[in-house]
From TrEMBL:
GO molecular function, one term: hydrolase activity, acting on carbon-nitrogen (but not peptide) bonds
Domain Amidohydrolase-related residue range list: 270-377
InterPro entries for the chain: Amidohydro-rel, Metal-dep_hydrolase_composite, Metal_Hydrolase, Metallo-dep_Hydrolase
Stored CDD domains: Met_dep_hydrolase_C
Keyword terms of this UniProt record: Hydrolase
Stated name of the protein: Amidohydrolase
The keyword Cell division is assigned to this record: no
Amino acid sequence: MKLIKNGTIIVGNGETLTNASVLIEGGKVTQVGQVTHSEEPEQVIDATGLYITPGLIDVHTHLGVHEEGIGQPGQDFNETSSPITPEIRALDGINPRDKGFEDARKAGVTTVQVLPGSANVIGGEMVTLKTSGNVVDEMVLRRPSGMKAAFGENPKRLHGSKGHAPVTRMGIAAMFRQQLRKAQQYKQKLERRENVEDNLGLENLGKVLDKEIPLRAHAHRADDIVTLLRLAKEFDLDISIEHCTEGHQIPDYIAQFNFPAAVGPTMSTRSKVELSDKGWETAGILNQAGVSVSITTDHPVVGIEYLRMSAIQAANHGLEKKDAWSSITLNAAKHLGVDERVGSLEAGKDADVVLWNDDPFNGSSYVLKTFVNGEEVYALD
C-alpha cells in the first residue's frame, strides 16, 4: 500500500482537489480525496505544495519501432515492401529499451499507442501499452488498438518513386477501396463456411469491418480528411483522424461525422506541403466545433517529452485549459478505448500517477516521480 498525501490533485475528469490524497494498493487506485486506511501504508509521500495527476497519454507514437540514436537499424516502423500491409503488427517491432520510453517516464507519460509508419496506404495493426517494462507483451494495455492507414503525400511519394502504385491521391483511395472490398468478400466467404486460402491481411481488415478496432488514418490536408470521411461512410467504419492538420479549415464538416481527431505534431517544422497551414489554433477550433480532440507528438517527429508543452501551447491558442489537459489524459484514454483503466485518478483504475513540483500547466514545472501500476518507474535525483 502507498499513500501520496496532502497534494493538489488534478483528477483528470474535470475535478481539482486540494489538500487531497491518493491511496494505492495492488497496482490500483483505491481512494482519492480524503482517504482512510486501517493499516499503515508501506510508503507515504508528503505532497504538500505539490501536484498529483494521472499519467499522461500520447495517442500516436512510433516509440520502440523508430528507435532514437541508432539510425537505420532502429527504423522498423515502415514495411515498404508493399503499399498494402494489414498483416503486420507494430507489436512485433517494438524494442522496449528504446531511449524514448525512458524519456516518456521522465516526462510523466505512462501510456502510448504505437503505430506503424505512414508509408503505406494500409500499414498494419497498432498497439497501446504502458511505458514501463522489459518485455513488450507485459506492457500491453490493448492489442490491437487500431489499423493504420495513410492518405496524402507519404504513400504516393514513397511508392510512386519506385514506379508503382499509388502515384496519386486518386490511386491511394482506389487502392484502399479495392482492399476493403476484398476484405468484405473474404469475410462473406468465411461466414458462408466456404473454403478459402488463409489471408492474414484480409482477416485483420475484417476486424475493422466488424468495428472490433477502428481505422486510424494519417490525413493532414483538408481534402485528404474529406476523402477519409467519404470512405468511412462508404464502408461504415469507425475511424480516427490522425494529425488532422488542416482540420481547422473544415471543422463543422468533420464534426458531423462524430469521429475523434489526434492533432499534431504541431511542434514540428513545415517540412512538407501538407504542413504548410499547421498551427496551434487547430485543436481549439475543432474542439469548439464539437470534435473530440487528443494531442500527439508523433514521437520521434517531436520528442515525447514535449507532449505536455504541446497541450500548453494549444491552450495558449484557444483550446480551453481543461480540454487541453483532457486531450493528454482522459480524452486521450477514450480515444484509445482504454478509459476504464487509465486517464484519470479514480478508484479502480490503474495507479499510473505523476507527482509534480508545481501546476503541470506551468511550463517551468517538472516531474518529481512517475508511477506505473503503482510502481515507481522514475524519480528525480
